[in-house]
């Protein structure tokens, strides 16, 4: 490893040395991830594949586009970032995903699934238009392949026939149990005995069969039945106009190199099917990859827990008495906390795989026929289904409940994983109610309330529970905000995780002789206008949210205020109009002056300005 | 036709009478669409299919889910809406799309493409959970089948094996030339001679071949080559776990009924491939379906024209000198005005079919490798690519230019086709510039400006040109707003089509002794803060936009103002927080008080209020 400072150095190594290198790399990433957290299993699965790619291709001249991007640790180690690898996922350090600013070898940024084939096809077209010569390779997992966008891209590339390679990294298990017909197709290729028969040579077998009438007829029948797997493994891809190659063992470097060399020489679009094992080389992760999909850093950032678990517990309890309750997720039954609901009611949990668009509209179909589906997805991934929420759910005012886990800042996964936009993109949708609990107890109260509304509802909440530096007097009541502490110098309307922070800031300000009222603005849409009117004589309003400021909660408050015949200065605190980088949530809060001290200072300063004017 | 007041009456008719009915229905819709405008070709193509569906199935007990929904005129005529059919697409009359409030036979609303299989699968699951017994049918065109969402749904239903029928209405031509590998696959099924050979009986052919060594080897070779089409037409769908049936002539009622009866009896998911001709029975529409995809009403609503044409002309002219300019569209080369660019530079126009997500990220790939792609899509359809704009383009600050045609109110297509949300969903995306020309000349100036910005830019403009009731002093200059007329009582910041309206309102107000300033706020993001500051001493601000008010342009202005140490009353005029129904743009403007008179009255009233306080 010490000899490898870039892809060029790799090309000098023998196959044996490459295999030795793979062992060193595994140790390096295991050590680092144990300290900093990260996507260990996915990276252990692509060690040999990444080595082979950089051995055969000439990056950055050749373009390697990684899907999702959480499996790029080896890629980073092999492209000159070994010395800073210990900063992985730390504030100011290496990102856990490809970043163009980090390296010229990171040619396309990502974090969400199923984008790589589209991006790679655009690059191949750019190359052909410019009459340049280089290779374009997309590396995509079997889970990501079920995303509609990847299928749109296959459909386009299959017809237009640009030279490019798609490496299907089939780890037999995406984040959770793999779902869908495509997965079944891949699994058939892997396991079908008829396919193995083919590998031994179907022609040989044919020659041994006596050439008389009946056996031939049987043979023809057999060919008809077994045809798909016998003759053309991957016929689905062949049908789409791609040349299918594989499957090949993704942990055997010589075999991998041989298959990839062959694929590299071919013209037109090629799909190379590589079989890998998530967590290869690390026992715990190999046996339970969903559990170990993302490893938390050694020192947990936040002691609290509970929103995801509360969702599961509440749904199980509601589901016992209300048969209309069903649950839908997109490959995240564990992460969203839905799993216990599925254990209790297996027929009532639908995991559609990585397919957020379909998840939402399928839920709309369930709702149109009498059910009350709860769609639990991470906030950032629900962005994929923006049109489905608006056009398929809100338009018809269907009773679908969206549970947006990981809303707001999520920490070390960074820019692509913060749920920074949900209040902005949901707030302008007609007919929807948007809720944001400040503690798990409120989430538990909000779910039956959401069911009772008989229309679209979104509930957004952060990754971790809150510190609960205060005890709430009353729990969530029918869509109303609640006052948590009263003061005469101004009012803080805080949303979700920020309620906790507002209470801390209130305490700091109190010591400085400034008494502020804090309101838990747990209903983001519609605003609690009664409560807003109650405070129109206050000298200052402060809004607090961990959502981007444009179009967010604070924006809704200023929209409302503009229609009133009164002037109140409003300070809107939230995320800036920019992508927030990676770091612990605490570090990011401090950077953005959203920590208690920062909030208190900004309020004090605003009060100073207000007095002046 | 007089005998048919509902699906039940249909079931009494003979096959011959059904065929006669199809002729009557064709005349009815041709007469109506000539008057009111509408999607003539699509409806003429499904006359027999719709008759057969309502003959065989028991709607609304059985659920018929239409994809896109523009082909439901026959369905409306057969389900008790004949008497009000002349109100089609008129304000307050029948919608051109399925609406649950219109009829219990409209079980799922739509307007955008590729949603039907997801919705139908949700309904099938609801049925099975409730242990009810009814049929669920999705009717989807070959164009819509390339949408990723439809493929996600096929993937899910292929594996989960619910009983349901997907009718693939293959009209060999979606809106424009059909694209993609799936289309090629369908075309192969239709035209492949080997498939015809299969129809005549491959087994018979086999028996005639002498059973000796060499011919058998050749036969095996032949089977291997021709396999896909010989044995299993539609193998792609079979591979996904669906039973494929067809193709069947969609204009032959007896054949159609026979195939559909068979499909209805089968268990598990079935795909029935029906071949139809768009515009069947109407010569002009049969030969040029894209041109006749949507027929304009007899009396055009708006005399002006020009944004789409301006886009095409400008791109052709820019493209001559700048080889980086390429264009991308999603099945709308004519509607968006891109076609002339494609005629001039065939290799530089990419029509990816109905696949907005892929269109955007493929463009991002082109941009990442040096090109300047212009993605032209209707505003409402770009909603499908929300995440791709945010996560694949804005995150990397890639120079992709989005041209959003049909922004704002679009008229008689109604709720699903207004571009009512674009400023709200774009304004909160980091790194993007959002422009809105008030006239085609400004669009022409904005495109080179957008190219020069080297980052993401969205330009949104309405369906028709503007009336140009005034002559602008100067054209668009480098991202600055322009003052169109000065007055001291207040300032109207108007966007796009609303600039014209603001000038008309200004004239009306002038006659009442009220002089207003009008500003063309042609840059929606970032706001022209210099211009805003210039007017902080005005007694009233008015914002005007044809976009929903939450999170829109006016919202941006009030957000900005909240940070200033001054109080100015702001009246935000725009679309309400609701789905706006169908009607002519003029009628809708009047209904929403966005016509000149309505705007003038609201400003006068606001000035009265302002004086009082």
Can you walk me through this structure?
Two copies of one chain form a homodimer. With 613 residues, the first copy, chain A, is of the alpha/beta class. The first copy, chain A, folds into three domains: 241 residues, 3-Layer(aba) Sandwich (Rossmann fold), CATH 3.40.50; 154 residues, Rossmann fold (3-Layer(aba) Sandwich); 131 residues, Rossmann fold (3-Layer(aba) Sandwich), CATH 3.40.50.920. Chain A contains 26 helices and 17 strands. In chain A, the strands form three sheets. The first copy, chain A, has a seven-stranded mixed β-sheet, with helices on both faces. A five-stranded parallel β-sheet of chain A has the order 1-2-3-5-4, with helices on both faces. In chain A, strands 12-14-13-16-17 form a five-stranded mixed β-sheet, with helices on both faces. In chain A, β2, α7 and β3 form a beta-alpha-beta unit. In chain A, α15 packs across α21, α17 runs parallel beside α19 and α22 packs across α26. The radius of gyration of chain A is 27 Å and the shape is globular. The termini of chain A are far apart. The interface between A and B is large, with 129 and 129 residues.
Q: What percentage of residues of chain A falls in helices of 4 or more residues?
A: 40-55%
Please outline the major beta sheet of chain A: 7 strands, mixed
CATH topology of the largest domain in chain A: Rossmann fold
**Using CB atoms under 8 Å apart, which protein chain pair has the greatest interface?**
A-B, 129 and 129 residues
Annotated CATH homologous superfamily of the largest domain in chain A: Thiamin diphosphate (ThDP)-binding fold, Pyr/PP domains
CATH architecture of the largest domain in chain A: 3-Layer(aba) Sandwich
The count of DSSP E runs of length 2 or more, i.e. the number of strands of chain A, is: 17
CATH class of the largest domain in chain A: Alpha Beta
- What is the CA-based Rg of chain A, rounded? 27 Å
| Quaternary organization | homodimer
Global morphology of chain A: globular
Low-confidence stretches of chain A: 174-178, 191-232, 299-304
Distance between the termini of chain A: 64 Å
What structural class should be given to the helix and strand makeup of chain A?
alpha/beta
